[in-house]
Write a structure and sequence with these properties.
166 residues; alpha+beta; Beta-Lactamase; 2 domains; 4-stranded antiparallel β-sheet; 16% strand
């Protein structure tokens, strides 16, 4: 009986400490992480702005927007762009989103050459605003540097809305 009382007293003393430690850990690290996604309307605004910019420059392109996991969120293609531009635009957007980098900054990374779905070509731009990461945009069909500029136009078209989103 005496051992039982000692054990019970020790447990009653340690229990509040354990609960306090667990709540301190919970405050430091949330059990879930909130994620933000582009609305279909914003994703479509981005591809529309990018296609319009490249069209104004005299290029026929395809543009893809993907979410943070690389899943297609919006796509627009000039009907006169080459058929290869469809997969290339998606690959550039996937690469920008999954690496969270402008693809022109990773084209010289041989370690990524065989990574599944990664396309080491200029023309992909990540989409981030207001401290949040949303995905990527990829443009194919113009000169690579123009693809990137048009992609930035697409991102810039929705940045203000994203910065004030809450």
């Amino acid at each position: 009986m005496k051992n039982w009382l000692k054990t019970s007293a020790l447990m009653l003393f340690l229990l509040p400490l354990a609960v306090q430690s667990a709540s301190a850990i919970a405050e430091d690290q949330a059990p879930v992480m909130p994620l933000r996604f582009l609305s279909p309307d914003l994703a479509n605004q981005a591809v529309t702005a990018a296609v319009a910019d490249c069209t104004k420059r005299g290029y026929k392109v395809a543009v893809a927007v993907v979410d943070r996991a690389g899943n297609l969120a919006a796509f627009l293609r000039d009907p006169l762009s080459g058929p290869h531009t469809i997969k290339v635009a998606q690959g550039k957007a996937f690469t920008a989103a999954t690496l969270q980098a402008v693809t022109s900054q990773v084209t010289n990374r041989p370690d990524l050459r065989f990574a599944p779905g990664i396309l080491l070509m200029i023309g992909g731009v990540p989409i981030s605003a207001g401290g949040h990461f949303y995905g990527g945009i990829g443009v194919a069909g113009a000169d690579p540097e123009i693809d990137e500029v048009c992609g930035m136009t697409g991102v810039n078209a929705i940045t203000e809305t994203l910065e004030f989103a809450d």
